[in-house]
Design brief:
mainly alpha; DNA-binding; 3-stranded antiparallel beta sheet; homodimer; 3 strands
Chain lengths: 144, 144
DNA sequence: TATTGTTATACTCTATAACTATA
DNA sequence: TATAGTTATAGAGTATAACAATA
């Protein structure tokens, strides 16, 4: 009986535990900056797309519902880290762009996030990390 | 400017998206059985430890707070999938054990979960999967 | 008609503190 | 005093539906 693999070998279960562990420590590290993993992600994308990103596109990349992005952008905007600009080409869009302060805060946040990532993956040989990331990418973005 | 790696290369971010994708489809697949990822995990551990597991130990493995385990075991017990037995050696403990029905439901659930896992990792060469699992284990259970 | 952003709502998950009974 | 289980509660995350403005 029970000749099957234990729960602790299940990839979904391991993904969930690993993801939770990293997210917890990252959110804790970002606490002093008033950010969490999700708002950090949105800010990161805004900084990447310096000229402005559509909220719909933010939602697609971060994997959230557009309605959740509204709240996160509201929050970042209230703190003066991003701003919503009009899109001359399509007036339905609100282009999200980082402020100067947003770029500063992100730089610091990015440092903290990297620090936590490194801590969690310290036991993993660097040469295996790229393969790991590659598998993760395929599962996270099946289409691409 | 922005010479840094994009968010989509960040391991924590990828973990979160991958974990979310798998958890969503697994919970959906388990729907007809009245289970979700978390109750499935608890049931799986109960089936593995046929003679009974302490709720504290369940909480430690699944990575939940003991108070959350209470609710999950309540739910499984109400559905007749597990039962709580007294521990003769330590009367503080409530040993969680699967019922016959619990084992049956788990067998079916396990099949469905494996099906989803396979689907998500179909694009990954099998020989790379064990290495992937190994990294995941180290991040999920840093001590072990 | 289809799409972007938005509001509202409900449900699940997570985190904490406090209490009880046993050890 | 320490540990297992329990209850209660609040906060964060997730999922859906509906609506206005614009295309």
């Amino acid at each position: 009986m029970s000749s099957e693999r234990p729960l602790t070998d299940d990839l979904g279960f391991l993904l969930s535990r690993a993801s939770g562990a990293v997210a917890r420590s990252v959110s804790a590290a970002l606490g002093p900056l008033g950010l969490r993993v999700r708002s950090y992600s949105v800010l990161a994308l805004a900084v990447e797309h310096d000229t402005g990103v559509t909220q719909r596109s933010l939602a697609a990349v971060v994997g959230l519902d557009p309605s959740q992005v509204v709240a996160l952008v509201d929050e970042l905007q209230d703190r003066g880290l991003v701003e919503r600009a009009a899109d001359p080409n399509d007036r339905r869009n609100r282009l999200v762009r980082p402020t100067a302060e947003g770029r500063r805060v992100f730089a610091e946040a990015h440092r903290l996030v990297t620090e936590q990532d490194d801590r969690h993956f310290a036991q993993v040989p660097p040469e295996r990390l790229e393969a790991f990331r590659d598998v993760l990418r395929r599962v996270a973005f099946p289409g691409a």
